[in-house]
Specification:
Blueprint: H1 2-18, H2 34-39, H3 41-47, E1 51-62, E2 66-73, E3 76-83, H4 90-96, E4 102-111, E5 117-128, H5 144-149, H6 151-157, H7 159-181, E6 185-186, E7 192-193, E8 205-208, E9 213-217, H8 222-230, E10 235-243, E11 255-264, H9 268-287, E12 291-294, E13 297-300, E14 307-309, H10 310-318, H11 327-336, H12 347-359, E15 367-370, E16 392-397, E17 400-407, H13 412-427, H14 438-446, E18 451-457, H15 459-465
Parallel strand pairs: 3-5, 6-10, 14-15
Antiparallel strand pairs: 1-2, 1-4, 2-3, 4-5, 7-9, 8-9, 10-11, 11-18, 12-13, 15-16, 16-17, 17-18
Helix pairs in contact: 6-7, 7-9, 8-14, 10-12, 11-12, 13-14
Length: 483
Amino acid sequence: MLEDLIKERIKKLEKIRGSNLNPYPASSERTFFINELLNKFEELQVSSKTFFIVGRVRGVRNQGGVVFTDLEDESGRVQVIFKKDTLNDFRLVDEALDIGDFLEIKGTCFTTKRGEKSVVVEKFKWLSKSIRPIPSDFYGLEDIEKRLRKRYLDILLNKDVKEIFVKKSIFWNEIGTHLRKLGFLSVEVPVLESIPGGADALPFLTHHNALNHDFYLRISLELPLKRLLVAGYEKVYEIGRIFRNEGIDAEHLQDYTQLEFYLAYADYRDLMKLVEKMYKKVIQKTLGTLVHDYHGKKIDWSNKFPKVEYYSLFKNMIGLDLKKATVEDLLHEAKKRGLGIGGGLGRGRLIDILFKKVIRHTLIQPIFLINPPTDIEPLAKRMEKHPDRVERFQVVAGGTELGKGFSENNDPLDQRNRFVEQMSLRERGDKEAQIIDEDFLEALEYGMPPAAGFGLSERLFAVLMNRPVRETVIFPLMRKLEK
């Protein structure tokens, strides 16, 4: 059936070419976007002024000597009227025009008897002849896998989906604008790295043919940006793609956009003030409100974010005192709760798993979760009065982490010791433990100012949209279909 429809459209294409018309010209003329035309409609109708509009045909209604079409561009839609008694090429419209075709229209404004604002065609040309029909049953398709595989159709036919990516552009643009107004420098650091660092995550490996060397796709922006603090920049950021070779679920992707920024001569207390203001401004700009739905609950970003101590929360909800809890205690607690954790994991990884599986999903309203154990954040600065903890905070809301920042560890000797601890965890089977980066340590030895750093991913935007994260990505990576 589809093959027959395509063959029929190809015949129409040949008919257009047989009339010495180019169905795929390189140039087009546009006087107004459609919404501009509608806003100036009365003025243009009174003056009988001609103009050019362009767009895709979204509907065709043939009534003998008159063909009504709906023409749509990015800004809006208008009814276009082709009349047999005033148009030389009416035969082609009657025989070759299809939904999905792109047209350039020269015309004048006209109001129908029913009061509908319309455009009467004086002249037209094809800009692109569609040979594959747009499926009428794609809109509202419940199979999200099919919609994601044909994302261009999902966006074309679903206004809600199209609006998501308008909002996503606003979201990232507003973050960048906010940071630049504060004096941050936008930079680009390498995607390919000899050593993956800055996060606990599995990397992708690739081969560089010209250098005949294997490289990793970056899992974080952190270490290169901190090298720039050593270089003398005081405020730097990047919004860019990072890559983590991990599982797919409602909150995780393998390649996604992340913001990281670093601020010299500041600590995590300064950072929390900056971040709270930034979140409220960006969310208001993106949504037009600071309250939104998420999984049947309301998240309200308008209140001051309370600070919640990691140790106290962990003890209250799990019953373990992290000042005393050993690896054996944590492993026993995890097994008691049926978490199915194998051996070889260190204290920090066990704490993190218990927190994520038992506590995090209960935290719905925005908080700053502060001062976790040193074991779980090897790049953060220790608290002076509590060296078993680090000066770190997480923005937690909707039951998930939506940003993380900390006072950066600029002590090269302590940082080396903590990297060594990470390497010992890797040797014991923790594949996500960090790899020692001698070049970064050498940079620290030249001296890095006290600084604070922060990162957030597009998971925040997904929560704002109340959708799984891959549904807020234009073209998410999909499993290859078996033939």
